[in-house]
């Protein structure tokens, strides 16, 4: 059976597209979003080690939001969770890109 050239090139193109999309699925550390691999950046509550004070009255598992501007001027929104020992664990980070400076 002879396969027509357009159908064959479509199959090759589909295979290349599938391979390139799957190559993006790697197990690397994510630094933006929600991930156990988030590292503190300058401006984070836990940057430079753990804060000296602990949250004694906050319930375990409470969410602590934190907002600041990074060195590039972007708004950064971080989410922390209170651990059983009163320390904070960074669980989420989002950037807000304000292209038109509408604040």
Multimeric organization: single chain
* Total of helices: 1
Helix content: 10-25%
Strand order of the largest sheet: 1-4-3-2
Give unreliable regions as ranges: 25-31
* Span of the ends, CA to CA: 65 Å
Mean pLDDT value: 76
Sheet/helix structural class: alpha+beta
Q: In percent, how much strand structure appears in the residues?
A: 25-35%
Give a count of the beta strands, DSSP E runs of length 2 or more: 4
Rg estimate, integer Å: 22 Å
**Major sheet description:** 4 strands, antiparallel
Dominant shape? elongated
N-to-C SSE series?
HEEEE
How would you characterize the overall build of this protein?
This protein has 103 residues and is an alpha+beta fold. The longest helix has 19 residues, at 5-23. It has one helix and four strands. It has one helix at 5-23, and strands at 33-34, 63-69, 75-82, 88-96. It has a four-stranded antiparallel β-sheet with strand order 1-4-3-2, with no helix packed on it.
